[in-house]
Amino acid sequence: MKRAVFPGTFDPFTVGHYSVIKRALTFMDEIIIGVGVNMNKHTHFPIEKRVEMVSDLYKDNPKIKVVAYDTLTVDLATKYDAGFIVRGIRTVKDFEYEETIADINRQLANIETILLFTEPELTAVSSTIVRELLAYGKDVSMYLPKGMKID
User: Fold this and answer.
1) Which neighbouring-strand residues pair with 25?
2) The pTM is what?
């Protein structure tokens, strides 16, 4: 079975993340989406709410499991016996950083990283932007996958 983890970090529900996961599912049997816990970074929703929101988005897809995690990505992959890590890339700077991290993951745990660019029209959309807009009470529906609601 080809299983991958997608460490979505803080709010893995933007259209960019959604498109990366959708594409990864074309060649993976299962994807574990890890919603990260980081007490040092402000997030708009508590971890339980973020896991619930992402789970709801993928509830009809048995190939996806959503979990909270507070470890290294390689530890998440090892825990779920995943041979791959899927990462979403928006910019060349992201690519350079993730390529370096991919080398580290390969050395640490012999886990391959698959880097997937988001579609060009989604490259400017990041979880950070969505969180900023939410903090100011702005409508973020255009940045979310169809069917996703933010309460």
Assistant:
1) none
2) 0.80
